[in-house]
Amino acid sequence: MSEYRFLFAPASRITVHNLIGNDGYGINEITSDGEGLMWLLQGPNFLFRLQIIDGHIEFKRNEFEVKLPVPRCSNGGWLLLFMWRKDQLVLRANCIGEQPETAKVNTLSTIVPNDVVLWARKLDSKETATYDSTTALAQKVISILESAGNDISQTYGGYEQFWNITKNGGKITNRHPKDETEIHGAIHSIIQSYVRQSGLDLQRESQYSTGKIDFTFSGVVNDGGIKNIAVEFKNAHSPDLIDGIKKQLPTYMDTIGADYGIYVVLNYQGEWFAKPKLTKAQLLAKLQTSPELAYSRRITVLIFDLSKPHQASK
């Protein structure tokens, strides 16, 4: 894994280019009671992080950290402001319409290291990489998708973008998993920085006579030209779960000439949703051991856990 990392929750509305400035700020309206990482920028000798954990907001740069308790608001929503200078970190939080509470810490004069700045700028530059084999290319795509799954579980509210959530007066009245086609935009936004770093091309929902392929990853292989990897997403509670790996994905692989395919199962089972009545291990076994599965040796199954994470008691 790279020593450099940039992670962000959708609610943070932050970019890596905001964070490499030596002075800056951000303002977020928080409407969820979840916890997790808001954003992280990390290099070999640099750490810059904002997270909500154990009932507190934590803002950290290298060894310096400032904390505030999460506001307890009757309407559920609150405002978060974070600011940084070379020699100071500031947090401010308040329920909407109320006076803010502020915390700050003075730090050593700190600038973002040049190697981190250069790495961050490369995230928006497309550089083609060459892979030793199609197998190596497939392993890279698997690694990207596994990282995306980890990002969803680690970032603040990461799982919520995969749910249709209905609210009334700030209170949640209904939750239901989104359809597969509704989550493609969220997945694309999470994986695109990894794709750029890996020198790959990514096509979303390409239309063919056999149907729409969710994602097609393409890369250059030594002495093999451009090779494709087909990726299909399917809800774990879908009645077409087995049909998707048995027929749909192999058909798409044939259509684009892909030697390898990846089947990503979106598992919502937990506090908010009861289906399927299987553990993760049982779900994997169901998909990986069926004797009827075509292409079984060339399809990798991944499971994204999109259930509401367990909240530690306070």
- Number of β-strand runs: 17
Helix run count: 6
Structural class: alpha+beta
End-to-end span in angstroms? 34 Å
The average pLDDT is 84
> Unreliable segments (pLDDT under 50, ≥5 consecutive)?
none
The H/E string reads: EHEEEEEEEEHEHEEHEEEHEHE
Radius of gyration, in angstroms, nearest whole number: 21 Å
Question: Would you kindly provide a written description of the structure presented here, covering whatever features stand out?
Answer:
The chain is α+β, with helices and mostly antiparallel strands. The chain has 2 domains: 5-122, Jelly Rolls; 130-305, Restriction Endonuclease. 23% of the residues lie in helices and 39% in strands. It contains 6 helices and 17 strands. It has helices at residues 16-19, 114-122, 134-154, 184-197, 241-256, 280-288; strands spanning 5-8, 24-30, 36-43, 46-53, 56-61, 64-69, 78-85, 88-95, 101-106, 130-131, 163-168, 171-177, 201-208, 211-221, 225-235, 260-267, 299-305. The strands form 4 sheets. Strands 10, 13, 14, 15, 16 and 17 form a 6-stranded mixed sheet that branches. Strand 11 (163-168) and strand 12 (171-177) form a beta hairpin. The longest helix has 21 residues, at 134-154. The protein is globular, with a radius of gyration of 21 Å. The chain starts with a strand and ends in a 9-residue tail after the last strand. The mean pLDDT is 84.
